[in-house]
Amino acid sequence: MPKVTCDLTISLDGYSAGLNQSEDRPFGDDGGDGWGSRLHAWFEDPDERQLQMDKLAQTKAFIMGRNMFGPVRGEWDRQWNGWWGDNPPYHAPVFVLTHHPREPQPMEGGTTFHFVTDGIEAAFKLAREAAGDGNISIHGGATTVNQYLKAGLIDELRLRIVPITLGAGTRLFEGVPALDLEQVESRTGNGFTHLTYRVNR
């Protein structure tokens, strides 16, 4: 059965990014260089990276917040096509939540960014249509994931927990009502623990 998943790396105290995010420091005060060098050090592990790529291949549509897409605020006053270069890793439709309209942005490799101004339900409907019988990923950041958790639209949480604390920033579960989670997988890697939970409704 197709699933709606969330795959997120967080600090031990639940933050996916620190304060003071900017174009030069997209993860803000993240305990490292601002580019996730500590939060996302797991990506240097070839086995973990391959597992992540395999999961991306099972995902046929993605939803992300505008803050994850890029640093541009307000009206689209300049061209910005995401942090990932000309060939983003998604290779599928990506629906970006925003308050400001913009034409779809096709990229190399099959990724097209679509900009949705009608809210999370509208983006979810478009993603479901695009995904067909494939998975949908609520891809981040934490604020967007929290909105979909509150709406009861996520089936599975895949959390990579890194043993650092940030103390402040963008936090998973902020403002989310109590959830009934069932642990379905636990795996320890080099500098992280990967936990998968089914969200029972």
Compute the number of strand runs: 11
Radius of gyration: 16 Å
**Amino- and carboxy-terminal Cα gap:** 16 Å
The order of strands across the largest sheet is 5-6-4-3-7-1-8-11-10
Compute the number of helices: 4
Describe the protein's architecture and organization.
This protein has 201 residues and is α/β, with parallel strands linked by helices. It is 18% helix and 32% strand. It is built from 4 helices and 11 strands; from the N terminus they run ββαβαβββαβαββββ. It has helices at 46-57, 66-69, 120-131, 142-150; strands spanning 4-11, 15-17, 59-65, 93-97, 105-106, 112-116, 135-140, 156-162, 170-171, 180-189, 192-200. The strands form 2 sheets. Strands 5-6-4-3-7-1-8-11-10 form a 9-stranded mixed sheet, sandwiched between helices. It is globular, with a radius of gyration of 16 Å. InterPro entries: DHFR-like_dom_sf (IPR024072), RibDG_C (IPR002734), Riboflavin_Biosynth_HTPR (IPR050765). This is Dihydrofolate reductase family protein. Residues 2-188 form the Bacterial bifunctional deaminase-reductase C-terminal domain.
